[in-house]
Amino acid sequence: MSDLIELKKFLESGPLNYNDVVTVLGWSKKNRKKNKQLLEEWIDRGEILLVKSGNYTIPESEGYIRGEVSIPTGKFGFLDIQGEESIFIAGPYLRGAMNGDTVLVRILKDARGSKSREGEVYKIIERSKNVIIGVYQQNDNFGFVLPKEHMGRDVYISRKKTKGAKNGDLVAVKIYFWGDEERKPEGEIVSILGDPQNTEALINGILINNGVSETFSDEVENELYKLEKPSIGEINSRRDLRDLKIITIDGSDAKDLDDAVYVEKTKTGYKLIVCIADVSYYVSEKSKLDEEALKRGNSIYLVDRVIPMLPKKLSNDLCSLNPNEDKLTFTAEIDLDEQGKVVKNDFYKSVINSKYRMTYQKVNEIIAGDEESVKEYEPINEMILHMLELSKLLRDVKKRRGSIDFELPEIKVVLNDDKSVKEIELRKRGESERIIEDFMVAANESVAEKLFWEEMPTIYRVHEDPDKEKIKTLNDTLIKFGYHLKNLEDIHPGKFQTIIEKTKDLDEGYLIHKLILRAMQRARYNNKNLGHFGLSSKFYLHFTSPIRRYSDLIVHRVLGKSLEKFIKPKEKEQMLSEYEVVAKHISKTERDADRMEEESIKIKLIEYMKDKVGEVFVARISGMNKSKIFMELENHVEVVYNVHNEQDEYIYEEENYKMINTQNGKEYTIGNTIKVIVTNASFEKMEIEIIPFKG
Fold first, then answer.
1. Across all residues in the chain, what is the average pLDDT?
2. Residue 68, strand partner residues
3. Interval 217-245: pLDDT, tens
């Protein structure tokens, strides 16, 4: 690997022929076969290129970029490059690449007037998986599978490898040949999932398609079996907080309670104590449990189930901060003045005994003065009101520094016992939800700042400045609504927050907030502190959810080391290098988890809307491209109008965010509301289709 790094450095200055490569790397000319073999391996991996001249070079010098392709809809894809504008890849130019594949993309010289960079897949370097989900079609002597995800081609299945699948079955296929110019991909059916119209089968398919298991290996289970509750000695070695009125506040259906809080009003301000489940006590580094947690990266929250990062014995029992049980925690104790400014903090391992398992609903009722709830929780009423006071102070601090606070409604799909859709509701964000959010941010910032100034290697949660091109495009849109961003060369989060506050009660507010969000970079993990743009925070990481996020488990271990011993420079270097790899991995598992959650919700929304075909709704236009107009119904279900399915011709004015029907002159503009009729809810297309209502 060191030879490859060295070679790429030389190639940055220009191409080299074979003899030059051998010379600069100090290779023996006698090992020509071995040398050529190694160079071919590097070419196959997309690390270097062999051009027509016979010289070796790096892909970037020839207009190629190596990266992971993401395909959100199956019709097109993106190559995301951190800190740069994403490269758009049209469907025909994906060349059989699938979501998550590592590819070489060639930047197209002709972007056909588009504002965005465009490219095409030149080479698929590495497949992200070898098992895909699709629908089986039987032929006379063989079969083939039509993939649910974009692949560009169907998969040939010989009669011997059908596993008894019937025509129309949803199946999992293991691919052993990906095809070439002459032959189709070939594979064998490894699992029959059932009816492709059955939502449980489709959601099971999501997990298989992403290589996610709902169970843990025997090795992990064996380790788990040996875990016991902490000894008296361990409890006595920690700071004892069991006498404090510490409480948990979570959703009513939460089972993995990983944070507990306590607030005390002092003569000079407030004392905030945030206690987080000490998962690191049970999950030791390099253990099978640790390896599995790293592999998963995070818990996955699908519409009908949770796939935990850690087994339930840990997540719901040993580590969960259940009431009236002694639990091991890692504590951030923060003293704040009357303006909400941090004046002192302390971090230590502790033992707590949570006094109440509170829900967001109950805390909101206490804040609202509900007599029954106030009476039931009389011992902690005063503390909850102090929590509210402190939370509002922290919010004011964030507001003054320019932190962005999106007020976007979030869909919650409520299921019946049989997993059918009961109703669609919007997630509530009351004062109790804000309290916990504010306290967790305060704890995360405090830990991040401590580790930064101590020069401790760790994993930060970073959110980089938005791409300038995206901001320019956003500003062009805002101007059409009567708003604009001043001085695009100096972008501060406060500028976006000002517009959000101005528009939050207006009809177009929701759309504007969504457009601002789309212009932002995606937050990710990094071993370097790059700050958090959205929070307008110089130091930020994730410390508060080690049960469901591996990043937080790493932070706990690092914080523990910082409190217990001196770390040698060599060990710091090793940690920094290791965390670079871990950060990239868990950023990917987070993206994958978010996508799987969205897919599972989409499946249930399609199921819900199937018996709404023919009904009329009011919809707001939220986006468009050359062939589609995207809208949201009153219940915030996303729908699409496929204009190319209509007999009339349409003109797409990208610069004006407008679609015009050339036959009748009807204009469709982002932000407009219209009446629509639902025409189709399709699992095949994974779309809910509408047309304008003409009645």
1. 92
2. 102
3. 999 999 999 998 899 999 999 999 999 99
The model's pLDDT over 625-652, given as tens digits with 9 standing for 90+, comes to 888 999 999 888 999 999 988 888 899 9
CB burial string 504-515: b at 16+ within 10 A, e below: eeeebbbbbbeb
| Cα 85 to Cα 502: distance, rounded to the nearest angstrom | 28
* β-pair type (76-79, 650-653): unpaired
Whole-angstrom distance, CA of residue 548 vs CA of residue 299: 5
Burial string for 87-116 (b: 16+ CB within 10 Å, else e) reads bbbeeebbeebbbbbbbbbbbbeeeeeeee
Confidence band of 83 (pLDDT split at 50, 70, 90): low
Tally of structural domains, the chain: 6
pLDDT of residue 45: 86
DSSP letters, 132-150, are: EEEEEEE-SSEEEEEESS-
Query: 3-state SS of 553-601?
Result: HHHHHHHHHHHHCCCCHHHHHHHHHHHHHHHHHHHHHHHHHHHHHHHHH
Cα angle 157-159-162, degrees, rounded to a multiple of 5: 65
Task: Give yes or no: residues 551 and 456 share one domain.
Answer: yes
- Name the residue with tokens 């789309």: 518
Q: Alpha carbon 471 to chain centroid distance?
A: 22
Contacts of 82 (CB under 8 A, 6+ apart): 464, 521, 524
Mean pLDDT confidence for 245-254? 94
Whether 6 and 147 map to the same domain: the answer is no
Domain boundary among 452, 487, 520: 520
CB neighbour class for 690 (10 Å; exposed up to 12, middle 13-18, buried from 19)? buried
pLDDT tens readout for residues 264-306:
999 999 999 999 999 999 999 999 999 999 999 999 999 999 9
pLDDT of residue 324: 96
Amino acid (one-letter) located at 636: H
Full residue range of the structural domain in which residue 122 is found: 63-126
